Amino acid sequence: MNKVILMGRLTRDPEIAWTRSEDSKQYATYTLAVNRRFKRNGEQEADFISCIAWGAMAEFAEKFMKKVPCSLLKDG
């Protein structure tokens, strides 16, 4: 199995849902905006990656992953 590590910004808070089966499982869907390293004229500056998390990762997304504006803190 391949492993992918992405760093980006959430486009909105994750949506949490449950499967429709006898052994219902929780899942979370969200979109991650990942900045491109190089830009070409006329192309968007970010790629938008659709993601889905299952089980414990869905619970983590529900509790801790929120869309927040970027902040800069400066002393003095």
Secondary-structure blueprint:
Blueprint: E1 9-10, E2 15-18, E3 26-35, E4 46-54, H1 56-64
Antiparallel strand pairs: 1-3, 2-3, 3-4
Describe the structure.
There is one protein chain. The protein has 76 residues and is mostly beta strands. It is built from 1 helix and 4 strands; from the N terminus they run ββββα. The protein has one helix spanning 56-64, and strands at residues 9-10, 15-18, 26-35, 46-54. Strands 1, 2, 3 and 4 form a 4-stranded antiparallel beta sheet that branches. Strand 2 and strand 3 (26-35) form a beta hairpin. The radius of gyration is 16 Å and the shape is elongated. The model has no long low-confidence stretch (mean pLDDT 85).
Short description:
The chain is mainly beta and 76 residues long. It is 12% helix and 33% strand.
Q: What is the alpha-carbon Rg in Å?
A: 16 Å
- Given as residue ranges, the uncertain stretches (5+ residues, pLDDT < 50) are none
Q: Level of helix content?
A: 10-25%
Proportion in β-strands: 25-35%
Question: Which sequence of SSEs, written as H and E, runs from N to C?
Answer: EEEEH
User: Which structural category do the helix and sheet elements fall into?
Assistant: mainly beta
Number of contiguous helices: 1
Mean pLDDT: 85
Q: Can you summarize the main beta sheet?
A: 4 strands, antiparallel
CA distance, first residue to last residue? 48 Å
E-strand count? 4
Shape: elongated
